[in-house]
Amino acid sequence: MSNQTVRRLVGGLGTALILVICGIVIGAFFVTERHLQRISIPKYVNVEADAEGGYTFTLDIERLMQAEHLIDPPEAERARHPEIEAIKTLGVRATESSGVYALETVSTTTDRQFNQTLKKGGIKLVDTQWQWTKEQAAALANENRGALKQLRYAEYVRTKRDADGAFQAAVDLKRLMADAGISESLDPEQDAGARAIRSLGINCTQRTDGYLLQATTIYADTINADLAASGVQIVGTSWVWSEAEMESHLGTVEIPAAYVPVTPEATPEPTVTPEPAETTAPETPSGTYNDVPGKTSEASATPARNADAIDTLYGFDQTELRKAIRAAKEAKYGSTLESSEIKYNYFAVGNEGTAHANVFRIVYAITTSNGAEHLIADVYDIERETGYRASDVVLTVAIDRIQWRSPEDLKDYTVYELEGGSMVFDENAGKSPFDSDGLVMAKSMEETVSFDELWNIPQTKDRTLLQLLGYARNEMFARGGHRFSDTSTYTTYFKQFSWYQPTGKVTVDALAAKYPKTRGNIETIQFLEKLIKEG
Fold first, then answer.
1. What's the gap between Cα 90 and its chain centre?
2. What is the three-state SS of 461-472?
3. Is the pLDDT of residue 515 over 90?
4. Choosing a second label site near 118 at 20 to 30 A (CA), which of 99, 325, 377, 494?
């Protein structure tokens, strides 16, 4: 064989080897890409008409995470899910030109490896840049709303100057209800439209270019649907007024008494909003509910320890209690409240000689239009068969780091920390939250699930109640054939069971069409998850 022939053979083999390697690399890339969970951004963008006749666009992160079945881990486990923290930084930016909106997905993070972070978590964003015409935006803003009566929020806002000369704002809810055709005499407990409007408020923030005004509500997830059920759409819920415009809207309004929701006894039916229908809680019984530990009671210098109060949360439905605390928190901050997060949650049982049998405490990280602070909310001497109201709650703004990070003032009590809503009970020792089929709530496909059953899921030291609620919610989708992303914790868990036969994406509507009870059960679990995380 000649040297030339050898060189040709070696060269051919080298070329072939290079092509094979390139093929393997390209093939691996496409296989990896194919197994990523692709999330299309436009379908999670909310479109709303603004005060100037244009449109505003916001990315609904909560709807995205729920629809895509992404785990929202408790704070202690967030480091293990950087892709979720990356998703939470997403937003949408719109630029209008000649009646066309150019939209793009943006992130508030400075992480240069943002896409790699998502990819490692099995996620790929698609359709991150697109265009909508003004006509398309109008159609999306009115989608599924029918011929609704549009009310521009700014028309119902009146201003006044405070002692420092700055402006404040208030909403004329009475006139808004009248224009919406909703009688002021309607019971908010029975009428969704009345409840929605009564929940409205206004944030007024001074800026260099004037004042930013933003509508507020405690029912952000459901208010549009509630108003639509009454034939109303409120538009232009965020805008800027100059000093002159604020001056031109000076006036007084009569604000109806704030509507404070209370917890229902019944589980919501599938057709109602995620926040279940509510009933009035019983009056607070006489006793020492609002006596602060360490302070002298008005009734007695040494108040009697409540013998009827519980000494364990085992079997105790906390929904009423937590909603009363939430109502007290929202009544305190009103329209200035922008966000809240539960940082710590304690249950303290009194030892011999303590003034109270028990203390239930939530410590919030609060963000308001006036700044950030920590709030301690306490309820004393909890009884198993007693209803709770906002008036049962004692609120204290923490003045230093030690005060809000440690229950030092409860040193005479046996203190339990409820991480993720959990408390591991001796009564559940050795019990698994999962049955032989790996299910937390096997009845959920065919029967209604109650708050009481969810609170009583056996909790373990390695899984919080919040995590177990995630399994209880997503096992319904898994049983319906939903395919989670390859890297999802739920995929790893459910694939070990023979009943899990994923066929593709399963939506709430598709699941409820076959199993009607699932919609109400999903909404009940979502409500409880939010109550445990945010209060």
1. 16
2. CCCCHHHHHHHH
3. yes
4. 494
User: Quick check: 454 and 470 in contact, CB under 8 A?
Assistant: no
**8-state DSSP, 440:** S
Mean of per-residue pLDDT scores for the chain = 77
* Torsion on CA atoms 239, 243, 244, 248, rounded to nearest 10: 70
| pLDDT tens by residue, 470-481 | 999 999 999 999
Distance CA 369, CA 337 (A): 7
Task: Write the pLDDT tens digit of every residue in 2-20.
Answer: 555 545 554 555 565 555 5
Q: Which residue has the tokens 């919609």?
A: 519
Q: Give, in degrees to the nearest 5, the angle at Cα 450 between 69 and 452.
A: 110
| Residue 247 CB neighbour total at 10 angstroms | 12
Name residue 46's beta-bridge partners: 58
Within 13 A of 278's CA, how many CA atoms are on the CB side?
25
Per the CB < 8 A criterion, the answer to whether 210 and 245 are in contact is yes
Distance CA 451, CA 472 (A): 13
Confirm if 235 and 151 have CB atoms less than 8 A apart.
yes
Give the Cβ contact number of residue 498 at 10 Å: 7
Answer whether residue 146 shows pLDDT above 70: no
Those residues with Cβ within 8 angstroms of residue 186's Cβ, 6 or more apart along the chain or in another chain: 193, 194
| Cβ count within 10 A of residue 355 | 23
Distance CA 459, CA 343 (A): 20
Q: Which helix (H) or strand (E) holds 529?
A: helix 517-534
Handedness of CA 20, 21, 26, 31 (dihedral sign): positive
pTM: 0.53
Distance CA 15, CA 10 (A): 9
Q: How far is CA 504 from CA 68, 166, 480, in A?
A: 12, 56, 10
